[in-house]
User: Fold this.
Amino acid sequence: MFDIKIKELGEGDAFIALPYFQQSVFWSEFKTRHGWKLKKFEIAWTFTEELPSEIQGCHNKENQKANTFSKTENICVLVRSFAKGLFSMAYVPLYPSLPFKCTDEDKLNNAIDGEGIAVIDESPVTAETQTIEFAALLNETGLALKPYLPSNTICVRFDPAVEFSDPEIRDNFNMGLKLVSFADGLKVRKTKVDIQPPDSTRVWLKGTEEEILGAMKNKWRYNINLAARKDVQIEKITGKDVKLSEKLDIFYDLYRITAERDGIAIHPKSYYEDLLVTSARELSEKADIPEINLYLAKHEEDYLGAIITLFCKDEGVYLYGCSSNLKRNLMPNFLLQWTAMKDAKAFGCPYYDLYGMPPTDDENHPMHGLYLFKTGFGGQNFHRMGSVDVRLKPVYKLATAGENFRAFWHKKVLKKIRGR
Assistant:
């Protein structure tokens, strides 16, 4: 179905990154200093069958030859060894996207008039209409990458750049992918453990500050103003700050409190220090890389919360956050996020991604409070499909069974033991 050609790129080869920070060379090289190995590739694929009728004519004619469609992209692939070197896994964040462009969602929403009559004269293209093609693209890309990976690589794990406005539609698509993979004998498997958070919300920053605030819930605007009135101070720290070590100690103390309270895992302090220092150093050399900032919320002598953010020309992202158990009534986290949003807007980011939340407003979800907090800023929710594996070795089943048990133990059993 796809003719895939792969070229491994070296240090001197030009590299045009996809518009996601996880696919940037900066982020990928940062991860190599913390357990991963980086491989860069140029991937070119051509759809070799006749284009489905609804897809014909909806793409740029320059990309169509003999009724085919093709695409060439550069990608970063991260490889990591597990179980004391017994096996490896290759990880491809935010790739691939759907092979064919979907019909605009607004157009789909207006496709039927009030009397139930179709008002567009074309067959709509959606994610669901290309499930077969997308499953094949995943399968064939994973297998094409295999010769370039360590011989003990058990799978290629993709976090595809496929988004949905509704989690139910996403779940139906994933079920369709599972059925297609089974019916066609593909090696594609939806994982139970996702690497990137599949559900999030974006606050668009193209309007004025007043317009961005106006899109928030009333209580969120009130809480932002309350923190400011109560003299909560926000400190912004970069990797070149002379007090970086001291401020990172404060951040890490808060993070340990949060990890204990919420039952989450955190990296060593050196991980966050490396991220901040590397960004500041390369920015000072005029490199086109993301800006990483640490924000601390302080009231009188007490530090109440902290976040780490990433700003680049394609997006602003809230990466990490933590808070103390003190003075929570002063609403420091609201002011922290609003300060970061204003700075992201000034940097030129088109939106601010709050990066991870429950998929729906379910009061019974253990992280329902996180959903309420993040969606109150007036963003647009989106739902990616989550991680998908292309199996390369029979031992894959055993390895993923261990991975699933570990996730169950930490997310269910330990949290219940600790009363969460």
The first strand starts at residue 2 and ends at 9. DSSP finds eleven helices and 16 strands in the chain.
